Amino acid sequence: MLRQFGASQVALFLACVHAVTVLSGCASYRIGNETLYAPDIVTVYVPMIQSDSFRRDLGERLTEAVVKEIELKTPFKVVGTPDADSVLSIHLARDTNRVTIENPNDDPRSIELNLAAQVTWLNRRRVPLQPISAVPLPPELLPISQTGTLITAVGQSVASAQQLAIQRLAERIVATMEESW
User: Fold this and answer.
1) Residues 83 and 8 in one domain
2) pLDDT digit string, tens, across residues 164-181
3) How many angstroms separate the CA atoms of 3 and 41, rounded?
4) pTM beyond 0.85
5) Do 107 and 170 sit in the same domain of this protein?
6) Which of 96, 129, 168, 180 could form a disulfide with 146 if both were Cys (CB 3.0 to 4.6 A apart)?
7) Residue 73, class by beta-carbon neighbours within 10 Å (0-12 exposed, 13-18 middle, 19+ buried)?
8) pLDDT of 19-65, one tens digit each?
9) Does residue 85 sit in the same domain as residue 144?
10) What residues form DSSP beta bridges with 99?
11) Beta partners for 101?
């Protein structure tokens, strides 16, 4: 069938087929972890996290953990300027300790550390990027929280338990940056 057409007509036909294939979306297919994140966001600015806690350096430690987690698990690049494609603002709203196990002399043997943060992720136009939930959540469920357990009987320190809670909270915060399916 192609013998009755000239070489220029065949080339034109193949160019049209190629153009239709490219325009139909085949060329924009994404693979890997990039499919989980917004394709129009490249850079993220993470300002220093403000903390309502009286414990020193929790905001700074959480900021460092969140930045490392973004760089490790997302295709985004963290930058030091608010001119980025998006701004991830976090407020450490609560830091509580609760004794879960005591010995007969009322000495704490296991303490649960709980950190709660309020997260806002805005794009350059200050429009929220996090997906809007189909099921409305009550305000008390909106903060993201995470716990770490301090077991004094095995020689664990408060700093190591806090760092565990900070790391887990950073992982949960970065997980909210994924697009909904």
Assistant:
1) no
2) 888 988 998 888 888 765
3) 49
4) no
5) yes
6) 168
7) middle
8) 666 655 554 555 555 567 778 889 999 999 888 878 788 889 999 99
9) yes
10) 111
11) 110
